[in-house]
Amino acid sequence: MILPRSEGELVEAIASATSPLLVKGGGTRMIANAQGEVLDITGLSGIKLYEPAALTLVVQAGTPLAQINTLLADERQRLGFEPPDLRGLLGRDGVSTIGGIAASNASGPRRVQGGAARDAMLGVRFVDGRGAAISSGGRVMKNVTGYDLVKLMAGSFGVLGALTEVSLKVQSIPEAEVTLVLDGLSDDAGLAALRRALGSPYDISGAARAGGRSYIRLEGMAGSVAYRAERLRAQCDGAVLEGAQSAAIWAGIRDVAPLHGRAGDIWRLSVLPTDAAGIVAAILAAFGGDTLRDAVYDWGGGLVWLALPAGADDAVRAAINGRGAAVKLRGAGAAPFAPQSDQVSALSAALKAQFDPHGRFAQGII
Fold first, then answer.
1. Could you tell me the pLDDT band of residue 363, with boundaries at 50, 70 and 90?
2. Largest CB tally within 10 Å, which of 51, 104, 114, 363?
3. What is the mean pLDDT of residues 320-349?
4. 313-324 tens-digit pLDDT
5. What is the CATH number of the domain that holds 64?
6. Boundary residue ending a domain (172, 192, 226)
7. How many domains does the chain have?
8. Is 31 among the domain residues?
9. Axis-axis angle for helices 313-320, 276-285 (nearest 10)
10. Is residue 217 classed exposed, middle or buried when 0-12, 13-18 and 19+ CB atoms within 10 A define those classes?
11. Does one domain contain both 306 and 215?
12. Of 254, 289, 304, which residue is a domain's last?
């Protein structure tokens, strides 16, 4: 294991590497089958800048998420993209770091309202496969010029470079939140209700389904939340949970708590919300599975988490069949990512050749 304590040491480690490197933070989001000599970036940790009035935060990549959350909470602020803690889902130990979150574009339920992690990233510093330190973006949203390397690094899983610093915009914690709970609906009907809510003018900040129930979250000023909740209930009657009860529901959705402790493989699907129920039904039919037990839907059905028996790769790929993307986050066997089209493969290869011409970063990271 290589444990640099500064960006300079990281540059030296990458430039002198003679075998593939596996960029690793806390190891809580590691993709299945990741390989290489561990390049541990947790030594690059700490808050570089925090300006609550400007809603701006600059941190080193190895900084623990818990430390960031505590810092922001003291100012009644938060990371708007609601990054999930996947340790319970994947059976991992370790500490989630902001570098791993950025490199995997880890985004929770609030993505339907405020965007993904990549949308909150103002700037990054990283070291590419040549051992060159690169800075892109800045501390304000208008500081992006030329090719947007910030968006490129978000979700790159460490195959193009090792992040050393991330600049983020943060947001204030709202005054109130409520959750409307819809019970007794089929997956088709429950997901349709979520889509209708997301298409309404009521500024939904969460739309998920698990255990046979659909959940719709509203946040904001207390009066506004009460008004919007009343109007939504007129369209789709359901129980209303407030405050801590509502927050507990969404912490469980964010961290995919209904699938914690499950044996077998864990899959993450990105699909059209209108296709979600059919795709999941086709996959689970191959194993006698049950959506009440084996599936969690988020983003109105656009994100699906599945717990499947080991070796479900063929069934998942067949059901997706060009209608989305599927990533195996836990489990042995075939490559975690599905084969790309010729056009995407060519683009990926060109980017890899530009940022890592010597092949120093392993495939399947964080």
1. low
2. 104
3. 82
4. 889 989 998 899
5. 3.30.465.10
6. 172
7. 3
8. yes
9. 150
10. buried
11. no
12. 254
CA pair distance 12, 366, nearest whole angstrom: 21
Tell me the residue ranges of DSSP E strands in 12-144.
21-24, 37-40, 47-51, 56-60, 77-78, 121-128, 133-137
Asked whether the beta carbons of 347 and 152 are under 8 A apart, the reply is no
**Judging by DSSP bridges, how do beta strands 161-169 and 56-60 pair with one another?**
antiparallel
Q: For residue 16, give the H/E element and its range.
A: none
Work out whether the CA dihedral 269, 276, 246, 289 comes out positive or negative.
negative
Integer CA distances (angstroms), 71 to 27, 166, 250, in order: 22, 16, 21
Q: Is the pLDDT of residue 70 over 60?
A: yes
Check whether residue 109 and residue 238 sit in a common domain. Answer: no
Better pLDDT: 308 or 148:
308
Give me the domain span that covers residue 19. 7-172
Does residue 142 belong to any structural domain of this protein?
yes
Same domain? For 14 and 160 the reply is yes
**Torsion from C-alpha of 245, 95, 62, 109, nearest 10 degrees:** -30
